UniProtKB/TrEMBL annotation:
This is Zn(2)-C6 fungal-type domain-containing protein. GO terms for molecular function: DNA-binding transcription factor activity, RNA polymerase II-specific; sequence-specific DNA binding; zinc ion binding. It is found in: Nucleus. Residues 14-44 form the Zn(2)-C6 fungal-type domain. Signal peptide: none annotated.
Length: 635
């Protein structure tokens, strides 16, 4: 890698400051010597993108390359060891699809199902000793030479460590851990079949109602569709649908975008409402299939409208992950946003204030989706922070009144700031090829930053709750779990490897992620229990929500395992700590109630999305053994 890095650095052009001053430049990263001495950022001109980029961007790409090469070496090394067992994932597609099931549009579905085994064997993988990294590589048996990567920030990595600990300590029996995998989802197959025969007459009021619903739910979270312009889109869409000779594949230009946009907004709204009314699943698939008729036309040009189309497809995949490749969609959207200059405020064309607001909210909506999806799976980003200069959509000072509708866009803009802070933590904590060992002060400083963010816009009034405020609640508590997950991983692995050694100096772990996991489960419990017509009942529940719920549950189980082990000290809550870490105790009184709530939420997720049964089964398998063991240890 060092030779490759040197060759790449030799290709760096003279930075713009040295060229302007006619000084001799060098190829140091992230800044040349003269720029670093002057205390300014070092920029060079990228001829491919036709814009100036900081050298820090090149530095981040090289760091990412080092990480990927380290991953490749790990995979190559494991493939050379013939005696090392590999985990088996059944019928996993060759694309980086979030779930190990083939999309229903594949031919010969019956044949595919017959080849699906009844269970997944994880025991061999749990016995494999990887002391240098927590990253996991699951070999895909259906595609030779392919594997699925989960980084240390993924909840699946800590799941593996928990199972290995439970087996090693005797909580779970030796032998096969058979995780049942459903052969197919009857509900989804039924929806696909009915959607093909569904003859939607595009009733005007129904379409308008679905579009209104979209703007108070999903568009609050991501904000890349202009509500004022969409009113005209709806009328054009209704006129087109009223034409009995309409063939969507013949649509071109603006009409194609309008037809696609309204169809996708209706499909997303139906997917949001499907958890209350199952028939909406069929309607949503019908709208989606109508939109696909002109998808090539609306994504073939380098325009803001094409970026919007890619984002609509990405949002739909968050609800229906089997209907597209979320990784490719986000990759295309990120590339297109950079090409359009959405990542920077250096706009050449004159923009109105409305266009500026839409551009900023579009970019930060994409940024939030791309970052969160990548971090949940432990994967890097296509939008490095050094090149981003776009302002946040709105500031806290922009709010005129504290009513429910006004608080939501302010809250989601505040959430974008959290995603940026979380990305900085991810870059420092999870991206290096060699996992860093940060001291207590580093974690305390990051926690203080997150807590300060939380206090800046803490909405405690339930009457003001909505998509934006719920996203802030979920984002904050999941980020606390995300921040302290490496410490839990180290503690679980250390106790596993030294199970009979009481003299080992175990590093203390914080308890704040336990309480954040509890708060995360309570938040989703309120959302799931909310009536359909309420604001919380309309909150968009995507497969990301299932990952957050599972993350909270696994965090609870990790703390319970450490409590049963009783060798790892627990710190006092961060807000009670001084300059030095102090040992406290963790009150597990509410553990049983919260774990039961988590089980109910995971049952909902398993019913809602194919592929979530593994999460439910894994959590139930652990809780069935951990809860009795924890009760036996309590006085």
């Amino acid at each position: 890698m060092s030779t490759s890095r040197e060759l790449i650095q030799q290709l760096l052009s003279t930075c713009q400051r040295c060229r302007r001053l006619r000084r001799k430049c060098d190829t140091l990263l992230p800044d040349c010597r003269l720029c670093r001495k002057a205390g300014v950022e070092c920029y060079h001109f990228d001829h491919a993108l036709q814009q100036s980029l900081p050298r820090a961007y090149v530095h981040s790409l090289l760091a990412r390359l080092e990480h990927l090469e380290a991953v490749k070496r790990t995979i190559d090394g494991s493939s050379d060891q013939q005696d090392v067992p590999r985990p088996v994932l059944p019928n996993t597609p060759t694309s980086d699809h979030p779930f190990p099931h083939p999309p229903p549009s594949q031919p010969s579905q019956v044949d595919n199902r017959e080849r699906v085994p009844q269970s997944v064997q994880y025991d061999p993988y749990l016995k494999r000793d990887q002391t240098d990294t927590f990253d996991k590589h699951f070999i895909i048996p259906s595609a030779a030479g392919r594997s699925r990567f989960f980084g240390a920030s993924s909840v699946f990595t800590i799941s593996v460590e928990l199972f290995r600990h439970a087996i090693t300590t005797g909580l779970l029996p030796e032998g096969s851990l058979d995780l049942p995998i459903s052969r197919y989802n009857d509900k989804e197959e039924c929806a696909d079949t009915l959607a093909i025969r569904f003859n939607h007459q595009a009733q005007a009021e129904s379409v308008r109602e679905l579009c209104r619903f979209y703007f108070v739910t999903s568009n609050v979270l991501y904000g890349f569709v202009d509500e004022h312009l969409a009113a005209n889109d709806v009328e054009v869409y209704l006129d087109l649908r009223g034409n009995p000779l309409l063939n969507p594949q013949d649509l071109r230009g603006v009409e194609a975008h309008q037809y696609f946009r309204v169809s996708m907004m209706c499909a997303i709204s139906c997917s949001t409402q499907a958890r209350h009314r199952h028939r909406r699943l069929v309607e949503g698939m019908a709208y989606y299939k109508n939109a696909l008729d002109c998808v090539e036309e609306v994504t073939s040009e380098v325009t803001p409208a094409s970026l919007q189309a890619l984002l609509l497809l990405s949002i739909f995949c968050l609800f229906q992950p089997r209907k597209g490749d979320i990784w490719k969609l986000l990759d295309y959207a990120c590339r297109l946003s950079v090409e359009l200059g959405y990542h920077t405020e250096q706009q050449v064309e004159v923009e109105t204030e409305a266009q500026k607001r839409l551009r900023r909210s579009t970019f930060w909506g994409l940024y939030a989706i791309e970052r969160i999806v990548g971090q949940l799976f432990g994967r890097g980003s296509d939008l490095p922070e050094p090149i981003i200069t776009t302002e946040y959509p709105r500031s806290l000072s922009a709010i005129d009144s504290m009513d429910q509708a006004s608080v939501q866009p302010i809250s989601i803009a505040h959430h974008y700031r959290l995603v940026y802070l979380r990305s900085e933590i991810f870059r420092d904590l999870y991206m290096p090829a060699d996992p860093p060992q940060f001291e207590f002060d580093w974690y305390r400083d990051r926690f203080s930053t997150l807590h300060l963010w939380r206090q800046e816009h803490l909405v405690s009034d339930d009457d003001l709750a909505g998509p934006g405020t719920i996203s802030c609640d979920v984002g904050y508590n999941s980020t606390i779990c995300f921040l302290f997950q490496p410490l839990l991983l180290v503690a679980i692995r250390t106790t596993t490897m030294n199970r009979n050694d009481s003299s080992t100096d175990f590093k203390a772990v914080p308890q704040d992620n336990y309480w954040s996991a509890c708060a995360l489960i309570r938040t989703y419990e309120k959302v799931i229990r909310a009536p359909e017509k309420s604001i919380l009942g309309a909150y968009p529940m995507t497969f990301l929500s299932a990952h957050y719920i599972y993350l909270a549950g696994i965090t609870l189980m990790a703390h319970a395992l450490l409590a049963i082990d009783s060798r790892v000290p627990i710190l006092k809550p961060m807000l009670q700590l001084g300059e030095t870490p102090e040992i406290g105790s963790l009150d597990l009184t509410n553990f049983y109630e919260i774990s039961n709530s988590c089980l109910i939420l995971l049952s909902f997720c398993a019913e809602r999305w194919t592929g979530m049964e593994g999460m439910l089964y894994s959590f139930k398998k652990l809780s069935d053994k951990i809860i009795p063991a924890l009760l036996r240890r309590q006085p």
